[in-house]
Design a protein that fits this description.
The complex is a heterodimer of chains A (468) and B (217). Chain A contains six helices and 19 strands. By secondary structure, chain A is mainly beta. Chain A is 7% helix and 46% strand. Chain B has 217 residues and is an all-alpha fold. Chain B folds into two domains: 37-51 and 65-118, Orthogonal Bundle (Cytochrome Bc1 Complex, Chain D, domain 2), CATH 1.10.760.10; 130-215, Orthogonal Bundle (Cytochrome Bc1 Complex, Chain D, domain 2), CATH 1.10.760. Helix content of chain B is 57%, strand content 0%. Chain B is globular and about 60 Å long. Classes of the chains: A mainly beta (468), B mainly alpha (217). At the A-B interface, helix 4, strand 6 and strand 7 of A face helix 1, helix 2, helix 4 and helix 6 of B.
Chain lengths: 468, 217
C-alpha cells in the first residue's frame, strides 16, 4: 500500500507519469487482509489473528504462512484407497464482503482541474470501496487471499491484492518446525507476515480524493497489481523467516503482449525480491526486525511527459529493448507488539532506500540525472483499549534527489498522521484520520508555483469500514 | 480442526514440493499403518505445528494469555478438549479460540494430545513479588475459612500438581489463572465447585494466589 495510493491531484495537474520517481496513484486503495471468511473457516474470532484488524498477531502470521488453510468447518472430501486426500473443499466457500464509506475535507480546496476557481471541498464516497474476497482454503495445502474491488474513483471492478499460497510444515528434531511454501501474488510485500512492510502497513485506509504523497519507491506500492511474482519462503521455528522471489509485469486492463505503448512502464527482466526477518515472542511482547528489498529494471512509460517523444519512442514509452531504468530498493523494518488483556500496543516502522539509475529516462530526456535516490521513512504507534477504542499516531517522510524534470524542488514530503478508531463490534470500524503536511514536493510553501502550501493539503478523513 | 489433512498432505508428492527443494521430515508416514501409532504421530505433529503456535511446541507457552499444557493431568486435558468441542466451556478465550480449534478433533486425537502434553516436563519457575507469593501461599494452603473458601491444595494437591480429576496448577501462568478465576466467578466458565470458591475471592486475593501458583515447581 502506498501511503495514499489514490491518484494524486499533483499527478493530474502536472500530467507527469514518471518512470523515475513514480508518482502516487498506481495502486488501489489500502486494503485489509482481515476478512470474516477466515473467521468462518477457522471457527475462531478476529482476535486470534488480529490485534485490531488488519494488524496480525503471531497466530495470524502463522495462519498466513501456513497458506490460509487451517479449517474447522465441514468439508466435502474425496480420499483414495491409499488414504491420499484428493479433495477437501469447504462446504461453504470462504467469501467475505468489505464496504468502506468516507468523507474527505481538505484544509484548502484544490484548484479546479480544468478551469479557474476551486474544486468542491468535502468529498463524500459511498462507497469509497467495495471488495469481494475469496479468502481461505482451496485444497489441503493450498489457500488464497483474492480480492476483487470496486472503487468509486475508477468506477470499475478490478483485481486487487492477490496472494495464492502453497504451504507445508516439516517437523524437525527437538520439536522444532519449518513452515515452507510458495506465494503467487501481485504486489511486492502483500505476501509478507508483518505490518511494518508496505502492502499491509498503516494507514490501512485513506482518502482517494486528497493529494497523496507524490513520490514513492517501487516496492512501496508503486507496482501493486502491476506485477505478478512467485516467491519461495521458509519460516523456521516460527521465528526466522526468509523469502526469495521474482516479479514480472502483469498488467491489468491492457491487452498483451506488452510493448512500448503499455502504460506504466514494463519490467525489463524478472525483478528479484528478498526478505529476511526475525521474530521473538516473550510474555506479552513480540518483536520483529527485518530486511527486505527488490531490484526493478524498467522500460519507462514516457507518455504524457512534456519532454517525451524522443527518437526511441513509439507511442507511450520506451521500446522494449536497449537501456532501462534500474531501481534498487533496500529496506529495514521493525515491529513491536504488546498484547495485554485490556491494552494492546504496537509500533511499526520502516525505512526504504531506493538507488535509481535512470539510463532510459535520461536518454529520453524524461529525467535530468542518471543517478538519483529516494528514501522513505515512517513510524507509527498504535494503542487500543479492549480492542474497541484506540488509534494511531505517526510520522512519515520521503526525501530524495532534486531532478529538474522529475522533482524540480526535490521529492521531499513529510508530515504526521493521527487516527482515532472505534469498533463497536470486532468486524466494524469507524475512524477519523487527520494527515498534516509540513513539506510537499520539496517545499513548505508555494510548492506548485501557484501559491499552494504543503499545509493546504492537510486532510481530514472520516470513514466507516465494515467487513462481513 | 482438520486433523487428517495435515497427515495425509505429507504423503503427497507435489511438484511444488520438489520445486521448493525442501524435504518434509515425516515420521508420520512410517507410522501410518498402525492406527494407534498414527494417531500418536498425528497428535505430535498437530501439537507442534498448530497447538504449539500458542501453547509452545513443548507445551510451555511464551505468552501468558495461553496456558501451559506441559505436565498437565491428561484426563483433565482430554475433558477440556471435549468441553471446548461441545461448547460447554464458555470462558471468553475458550469461545474465541478453542471452540473453533477443537471442532473437528476426534476422541482418539484428543486423548493422544492429552497424553502427549501430560508426559512433557513442567515449565520453569518464574520469579515474582515475594510478599504477593506469601499471601497467595496462605490462601492456597488455608483458603478463607471465615468466608467458607476451601484450601486450593485440598483438590489441586498440596504441591499444586493436581489430583485425579483435578488439574495441575503449579507453574501455570498467573495471567491465565487470574482470568480463569474471574471466569469461574462470573460463571462464564461454568464449574459449580470453582464458582463457589471464586465467588468469595477479591481481585487482590486472586492475583496473590495466581502469583503463588505460577511460582510453584
Amino acid at each position: 500500500m502506498q501511503f495514499n495510493p489514490a491518484p494524486s491531484m499533483f499527478t493530474r495537474r502536472r500530467g507527469v507519469v514518471t518512470t523515475a520517481l513514480l508518482l502516487g496513484g498506481l495502486g488501489w486503495l489500502p486494503t485489509s487482509h482481515a476478512v470474516p471468511s477466515f473467521a468462518r473457516q477457522t471457527g475462531m474470532a478476529c482476535e486470534a489473528c488480529h490485534t485490531v484488524w488488519p494488524e496480525l498477531t503471531h497466530f495470524g502470521r502463522m495462519f498466513k504462512a501456513n497458506g490460509y488453510v487451517l479449517d474447522t468447518q465441514k468439508q466435502v472430501r474425496d480420499v483414495s484407497s491409499e488414504r491420499e486426500e484428493l479433495l477437501s473443499l469447504a462446504a461453504f466457500p470462504p467469501l467475505s464482503l468489505m464496504v468502506q464509506a468516507s468523507y474527505t475535507q481538505l484544509a484548502k480546496p484544490l484548484p479546479d482541474s480544468a478551469a479557474a476557481g476551486t474544486s468542491q471541498n468535502g468529498t463524500v464516497a459511498l462507497p469509497q470501496q467495495v471488495s469481494l474476497f475469496y479468502a481461505g482454503k482451496i485444497a489441503p495445502n493450498l489457500g488464497a487471499f483474492l480480492q476483487l474491488t470496486y472503487s468509486n474513483d475508477g468506477g470499475t471492478i478490478a483485481i486487487d491484492n492477490t496472494d495464492i499460497r502453497y504451504a507445508n510444515i516439516a517437523v524437525l528434531p527437538d520439536h522444532q518446525s519449518l513452515t515452507y511454501g510458495l506465494s503467487l501474488n501481485n504486489n511486492p510485500t502483500v505476501q509478507d507476515l508483518w505490518n511494518s512492510t508496505p502492502a499491509f502497513g498503516f494507514p490501512y485506509a485513506g482518502s482517494n480524493s486528497a493529494p497523496g504523497i507524490p513520490y514513492a519507491t517501487q516496492i512501496d506500492g508503486s507496482r501493486a497489481q502491476d506485477v505478478a511474482g512467485l516467491s519461495a519462503y521458509a519460516f523456521w521455528n516460527e521465528s526466522l523467516y526468509g523469502e526469495l522471489g521474482v516479479y514480472r509485469s502483469a498488467k491489468q486492463g491492457t491487452a498483451g503482449p506488452l510493448d512500448s505503448t503499455t502504460p506504466g512502464g514494463v519490467l525489463a527482466s524478472p525483478a528479484p525480491y528478498w526478505r529476511l526477518a526475525f521474530e521473538h515472542t516473550v510474555e506479552r511482547h513480540s518483536i520483529e526486525v527485518g530486511l527486505y528489498g527488490a531490484t526493478f529494471k524498467v522500460y519507462p512509460d514516457l507518455g504524457g511527459n512534456p519532454q517525451g517523444n524522443p527518437p526511441t519512442n513509439s507511442g507511450y514509452g520506451h521500446l522494449l529493448g536497449g537501456v532501462s531504468d534500474r531501481y534498487q530498493d533496500v529496506a529495514e523494518d521493525l515491529q513491536y507488539q504488546y498484547l495485554g488483556e485490556l491494552h494492546t500496543f504496537s509500533l511499526t516502522a520502516t525505512h526504504i532506500h531506493e538507488a535509481q539509475t535512470l539510463n532510459a529516462s535520461f536518454a529520453a530526456t524524461a529525467a535530468a540525472n542518471v543517478s538519483e535516490s529516494l528514501t522513505t521513512s515512517r513510524a507509527f504507534a498504535t494503542y487500543y483499549y479492549r480492542r474497541k477504542i484506540g488509534g494511531t499516531v505517526g510520522l512519515f517522510k520521503t526525501s530524495g534527489s532534486i531532478d529538474a524534470t522529475l522533482a524540480p524542488n526535490s521529492p521531499d514530503t513529510s508530515g504526521w498522521v493521527a487516527e482515532l478508531n472505534y469498533l463497536p463490534w470486532l468486524n466494524t470500524k469507524f475512524g477519523i484520520q487527520y494527515t498534516g503536511y509540513s513539506r510537499y514536493s520539496g517545499l513548505g510553501t508555494n510548492y506548485d508555483g501557484l501559491g499552494r502550501n504543503a499545509s493546504d493539503n492537510n486532510t481530514l478523513y472520516i470513514m466507516a469500514w465494515l467487513s462481513y | 480442526m482438520d486433523t487428517k489433512t495435515t497427515l495425509r498432505s505429507t504423503r503427497r508428492h507435489w511438484p511444488l514440493l520438489i520445486a521448493l527443494g525442501l524435504c518434509s521430515l515425516s515420521a508420520i508416514a512410517t507410522a501410518a499403518e498402525d492406527p494407534e501409532r498414527a494417531t500418536t504421530a498425528r497428535a505430535e505433529r498437530l501439537a507442534i505445528t498448530v497447538c504449539g503456535t500458542c501453547h509452545g511446541a513443548m507445551g510451555v507457552s511464551a505468552q501468558p494469555k495461553f496456558p501451559n499444557l506441559a505436565a498437565q493431568n491428561a484426563d483433565y486435558l482430554a475433558a477440556e478438549l471435549e468441553a471446548f468441542k461441545s461448547q460447554s466451556r464458555g470462558d471468553p478465550d475458550a469461545i474465541s479460540y478453542m471452540w473453533g480449534m477443537s471442532a473437528y478433533l476426534d476422541a482418539d486425537t484428543m486423548r493422544a494430545l492429552a497424553d502427549r502434553y501430560a508426559a512433557l516436563p513442567p515449565p520453569r519457575l518464574k520469579v515474582a513479588d515475594p510478599s504477593l507469593i506469601a499471601t497467595g501461599r496462605t490462601l492456597y494452603e488455608n483458603g478463607l475459612p471465615d468466608a467458607g473458601v476451601p484450601a486450593c491444595g485440598a483438590c489441586h494437591g498440596p504441591d499444586g500438581h493436581g489430583l485425579p480429576g483435578f488439574p495441575r496448577l503449579a507453574g501455570q501462568h498467573a495471567q491465565y489463572v487470574l482470568k480463569q478465576l474471574r471466569s469461574f466467578q462470573s460463571n462464564m466458565r461454568n464449574v459449580a465447585v470453582m464458582h463457589g470458591v471464586a465467588a468469595e475471592l477479591k481481585i487482590t486475593q486472586m492475583r496473590a494466589v495466581a502469583a503463588f501458583i505460577e511460582s510453584q515447581p
